Amino acid sequence: MNDSTALHTDRYELTMVDAAIEDGTAYRDAVFETFARRLPGARRYGIVAGTGRLVESITRFRFRDEELSWLADAGVVRPATIDWLADYRFSGSVWGYREGEVYFPGSPVLVVESSFAEGVVLETLALSVLNYDSAVANAATRMVTAAGGRPLAEMGSRRAHEGAAVAAARAAYIAGFGATSNLEAGRTWGIPTMGTAAHAFTLLHDSEEDAFRAQVATLGAGTTLLVDTYDIPTAIETAVRVAGPELGAVRLDSGDLPTLVVEVREQLDRLGAHGTRITVTNDLDEYAIAGLSGSPVDSYGVGTSLVTGSGAPAAGMVYKLVAHRNDDGDWVSVAKASVDKVSLGGRKRAYRRFGSHGHATAEVVRTSAVAAARDDERELLSPLLIGGEPVEGVMGPEGVSAARSHRERSTAELPLDAFRLTRGEPALPTVYE
Amino acid sequence: MNDSTALHTDRYELTMVDAAIEDGTAYRDAVFETFARRLPGARRYGIVAGTGRLVESITRFRFRDEELSWLADAGVVRPATIDWLADYRFSGSVWGYREGEVYFPGSPVLVVESSFAEGVVLETLALSVLNYDSAVANAATRMVTAAGGRPLAEMGSRRAHEGAAVAAARAAYIAGFGATSNLEAGRTWGIPTMGTAAHAFTLLHDSEEDAFRAQVATLGAGTTLLVDTYDIPTAIETAVRVAGPELGAVRLDSGDLPTLVVEVREQLDRLGAHGTRITVTNDLDEYAIAGLSGSPVDSYGVGTSLVTGSGAPAAGMVYKLVAHRNDDGDWVSVAKASVDKVSLGGRKRAYRRFGSHGHATAEVVRTSAVAAARDDERELLSPLLIGGEPVEGVMGPEGVSAARSHRERSTAELPLDAFRLTRGEPALPTVYE
């Protein structure tokens, strides 16, 4: 039952198809675009994530007998539309910003070219995937900046829907995190997994020393021991005594971290455990991480704030019809006219423009039908599905790995003030030509 | 592959089992409890949601060959533990607050009794389900209060991970919403679905009138026409002309709603469409809904703020070992000692106490081994799984329906100041006896 993604869809997508089949407009050629009107949280840039998941989800967008019979029984659409849905295979083409790419307000991060009906039914699914995954990536990339090269692990599964948790681990990894606690993310997306023990393990044992001995016996001296169940100095003394100075790391999950980590480092050094690392995991966000930059922390584990987008839990992207053919075969650019939700009609091309110093200077969006990249520009849209067929290298662990590399290259192009954590304007202006 | 929930688990749950199998503590009888330390957003009460989903997920917590071979290849646990996982069936018992029940800080919303190993591996899954679903229910119940009896529809699927979207629709329905746009939620949980058309449908057509005619031809005059694609007064005139005064509803998705809906109501009445309802869907949250209480709005559609918990996207519940037997067979109460994360050890019972006026006055949590409800108390923990077997009526659409009824009864017991939208203390004190 979970193999089909077809019912991850708002009812109105299908009722629109129903009415458009009746009057024939369902088959008009159409272009839909996905973009964000603004960057939530007044951030300086965003990171596109979810693209590879979306492409794979589109290949599973199929109405099988169980979906069709439910739709018919529920009276969602008429029998003629049930027949059309039964044959549904997305046969159009999708272009998009590469996964891991930097984006700004107005960036056309996804462009869908198909009949109206084929494209409109993908709206809910496309936005679900891109809005959640990009929200996490947008938070994660700031945490990576704040950590200044120290490794970060994603461990927020328990603070997100269980399916979202897997997507969050994936998006965080793309944005530069090094590992996840989530085993399904490890299996599905090839992301390194991490984790050793919780307070429960210490509490289960008759003494902290028993717990540490049991953990070291099974996981080795290189393991990470959690040292804040009872008294921290006592736990550290016990930890080094049990594991030896080759103890891998100690983990702190509570307390006033800036002060605490200094004391813990001093104690570890006094005990000869100079190589033992300190990892902290206490309700961190990008600001707390930045606040620890001068402290002897070796790595961070981040949970709640990461999987909930650190104050911006949805990226706020929309999926809009921007052009269609009329009955004469002419393309018509369209856009809603309401004052507070302005959209720009017509198929767009997008480019990142670079200055003489080598850094990006503008996000250029062209509505002209013919538009090539200038010498000082990089083209941003690449094919994701052509004639319904996924492009190679986008899906699966391969796509995740490529996206992670691309995010690193793409952020390296940005001017330095893009990496400020304060609220502000987008780091690049979006220029319409 | 999606049939098993077993890898929706943090790696450290399995490494703890690995080490505990090695030293024998894995098989100690244990009690785990789930509770919230506080109500995020300084809200007055919370609503437990996700329980039915969790019970069903526990029945699918199975390590099959594909999970086991991945765990073995990834070196997560030793071969002896792989064997133990292969046989894993939760055989313990789970009690919990009924789904839809009101909860407060410290309420033991879930109590798991099993061996340490059987119970600890459920931590991540249990928290994922309860933290997300309850976050949505916590936001939804406030919106229901703010709407003061006017119907609410959930339409936030596009602003949540696609799997989370289904859970959000379910949680919102339990908390009193009347319908969802999400088709999968309709199929899986029996929730009424709604929705007619988006701006794209109007933009696809050569004129707004063409679009309205097509929609009415297929969906009937009782449909809801979206009237803010171009000029609203023109659209309303067209809508009533096309559908007649029996037009079901008009939808507004932009603009200054308090002013706008008055104008729209007046125009509809002038056109004789007295029965045509007005539904609004423009970035609403509980405060915007409350602000419209004096306006002639007939129903609300709520998206982003609902599925992201309206500022509190995770309920913040934790899953803690509170007691275990030692090798002598004696029960030992346990709790972490850190200053900022105090927990109370020992198995708890929970009761809601009522005053002479009939309203609830306290949340009573007793740690005594023998504890029955007093005459002025209602017992809050009921069985969810006994000896690994789900209790009847908890899962599926049946469970959702029961939870929705229970939420209504449970909130009706609260004192009136529980329903204030302002930040504040919990409406009931949690009393430990």
Automatic annotation (TrEMBL), chains A, B:
GO terms for biological process: NAD+ biosynthetic process via the salvage pathway. GO terms for molecular function: glycosyltransferase activity; nicotinate phosphoribosyltransferase activity. Transiently phosphorylated on a His residue during the reaction cycle. Phosphorylation strongly increases the affinity for substrates and increases the rate of nicotinate D-ribonucleotide production. Dephosphorylation regenerates the low-affinity form of the enzyme, leading to product release. Catalyzes the first step in the biosynthesis of NAD from nicotinic acid, the ATP-dependent synthesis of beta-nicotinate D-ribonucleotide from nicotinate and 5-phospho-D-ribose 1-phosphate. Residues 7-131 form the Nicotinate phosphoribosyltransferase N-terminal domain. It comes from Labedella gwakjiensis. InterPro entries: Aldolase_TIM, NAPRTase_N, Nic_PRibTrfase-Fam, Nic_PRibTrfase_pncB, Nicotinate_pribotase-like_C. This is Nicotinate phosphoribosyltransferase. Its EC number is 6.3.4.21. GO terms for cellular component: cytosol. Belongs to the NAPRTase family. It is an enzyme of class 6 (ligase). It comes from the Bacteria. Pathway: Cofactor biosynthesis; NAD(+) biosynthesis; nicotinate D-ribonucleotide from nicotinate: step 1/1. Signal peptide: none annotated. It catalyses: 5-phospho-alpha-D-ribose 1-diphosphate + nicotinate + ATP + H2O = nicotinate beta-D-ribonucleotide + ADP + phosphate + diphosphate. Keywords: Glycosyltransferase, Ligase, Phosphoprotein, Pyridine nucleotide biosynthesis, Transferase.
